[in-house]
Hints:
Elements: H1 2-5, H2 25-35, H3 47-52, H4 79-98
Helix pairs in contact: 2-4
Amino acid sequence: MRATADHTQVTVAAESVTAVVDFPPAPRERIARVLGDLPALPTGAGHDAGILSERVPTAMLFVRNPTGVSHSPHEHADDVDCHAGVEALAAVMADWTAA
């Protein structure tokens, strides 16, 4: 462990813990109908979507990130993937407002 090599100590403590949010099936079903068969990704992400899901139908749309790095200056998504995310969101929202 790096701390041992550097003769330092590491202490880990949970300072903020949020329960897992299970998004309701209706938005997922609508997304699948509009966009086709996409993978459903489990996430521990809290975000605003997790808080809002208690009051309004909510889902999260993830844009492909080849690095897998999140919430870091090293996070990156290609323009083509960002545009695909915008188009997917617009399609679902257009379907939602048409209903």
